[in-house]
Amino acid sequence: MTLLSNALPAANEGGVNYVALTILIALFLLVTVMGFLATRWRRPTSMESLDEWGLGGRSFGTWVTWFLLGGDLYTAYTFVAVPAAMFALGSVAGFFAVPYTIVLYPIIFVFMARLWSVSHRHGYVTPADFVKGRYGSRELSLAVAITGFLAIMPYIALQLVGIQAVLEVVGVGGGDNWVAKDAPLFIAFALLAAYTYSSGLRAPAMIAFVKDTLIYLVIIVAIVYLPSKVGGWDNVFGAAQEKMAATNPATGKPNGAFIPGSEQMWAYATLGLGSALALFMYPHSITATLSASGRNVIRRNAAILPAYSFVLGLLALLGWVAIAAGTKPIGLDGKPNAQLVIPQLFEDMFPSWFAGVAFAAIAIGALVPAAIMSIAAANTFTRNIYKEWIKPNATPQQEAKVSKLVSLVVKGFALIFVLLLDKQNAINFQLLGGIWILQTFPAIVFGLYTRWFHRWALLAGWAVGMVYGTYSAYNVINPVTGAHFGGSLANIPGIAQMGYIAMTAFVINLVISAVLSAVLHAAKVSNGIDETIRGDYFADAGDPRVERLDVGPRESTPSP
């Protein structure tokens, strides 16, 4: 989602909040120790395989998976971005995140258990592994892998936005001195890189317990305490409605939408549905899912993960609480920055010690998804680029070594990206990532049920969807800055309504895939070799078919 730094300006009092900073550092050190100790968690025989390092031994039960998925999907950027969008732009830009996470879980209940079964049956680590096995197409698999890798990179960088927001509000991480400005971020990500390298997916799985507990605590306390301090919910909604209806002098239009009007319904609905379809196409979402110990673990999590949606709704409303509180989110550079609104709200309204807990929740909320995302990106590169195209005879030990090294490179790239480039670039690329990743949906999800779609048709549909989505996003101009990639909404061809570009590209992708599939089948063009069988999609823990009987990277006995 686009975050426009158009919050109301005000003076920043400056100075370091030492109490809050001390609590932040203490909790940060706690999770760092936990990250290193995670190497011994569940006593893995060896970390020298992607199954152990990259998927936690595929052994996590219901509660570990719940915390891991919650920590993975509800990130520090979510903590910062959703209320900031509500604060700056209103409900269309911010509150759509709540219904989309509600719609999401019935969708994954339907197909994720099948992906878990076939992946465990054949030792698949990434969605591109499944596509390669299902269609026998290296080209389609590479397209899915590259899309996932590119889409996840800016997502990792955006986790730094949450940490930077905390550091600015607490009084460090700003100014002209690079040591004071950037050193805390370097230290945080050096520690993250170190314990992720040593402990793999077990580190974020363990830390997620602390992260989610802190976030639940902070948001529930805030939603109970803060409205009474700003005149109650009537005043909160009244202040938000007044701000959204006011004219933005830069655009000559209202600041945002308090309640979406009829002309915004398509935008709201397509943003919600498109985001729901796209979220579990990201490699990090699938990585966290494949680490579960059984297919029923996935289904149970689809039933209980909506608890996070409830908390997300409360979090979103804090953006409007900040309007009623008169919060003035100003960075240490003296410029208004809506991304600072939640940290600044806590700084202004709570005692320093509780603000420190809230800051720690945001900072730790960046570590868990950043770790999982870097692992997922590294697994994707290793399995679907390095092993598939560079060194086909790589051993499991070599795979694990390459993946560990790539995870360091990915984190380093994300750090450099944020430190050297404008944050808006990371946001723009993340918007593109959502558009791109949805174009892999037909190859992955439809492939779990049918091979009617032809591999070359899927590749053509993917390519057209990617080009159309990128071109359409480029042509969205930010009305304030005049820059390209100014948002993710554009006119839907044929109905003259604003809608989510990713959904329009997805429909075009689907039409092309369907038409070309019919043509290619009529021409009797080969659709590749399927290494899966029907029973693979229903195998569960304890079934001998999920043991090491797979064809592929761990082959010992061919599939029946």
Describe the structure.
With 560 residues, the protein is mainly alpha-helical. It is 67% helix and 2% strand. It contains 22 helices and 4 strands. The chain has helices at 18-37, 50-53, 62-73, 76-88, 91-94, 97-122, 127-135, 138-170, 178-199, 202-229, 232-245, 265-279, 283-290, 295-304, 306-325, 341-349, 352-390, 396-420, 423-438, 441-445, 455-474, 501-522, and strands spanning 247-248, 253-254, 489-492, 497-500. Strand 1 (247-248) and strand 2 form a beta hairpin. Residues 1-13 and 548-560 have low confidence and may be disordered.
N→C terminal distance: 46 Å
Helix share bin: 55-70%
Strand order of the largest sheet: 1-2
* Extended strand count: 4
What is the ordering of alpha helices and beta strands?
HHHHHHHHHHHEEHHHHHHHHHHEEH
Enumerate how many helices there are, as a single number. 22
Structural class of the helices, strands and pairings?
mainly alpha
- Global Rg: 23 Å
Mean pLDDT metric: 84
> Strand percentage, roughly?
under 5%
Give a short account of the largest sheet: 2 strands, antiparallel
Model regions low in confidence, pLDDT < 50 over at least 5 residues: 1-13, 548-560
Label the overall shape.
globular
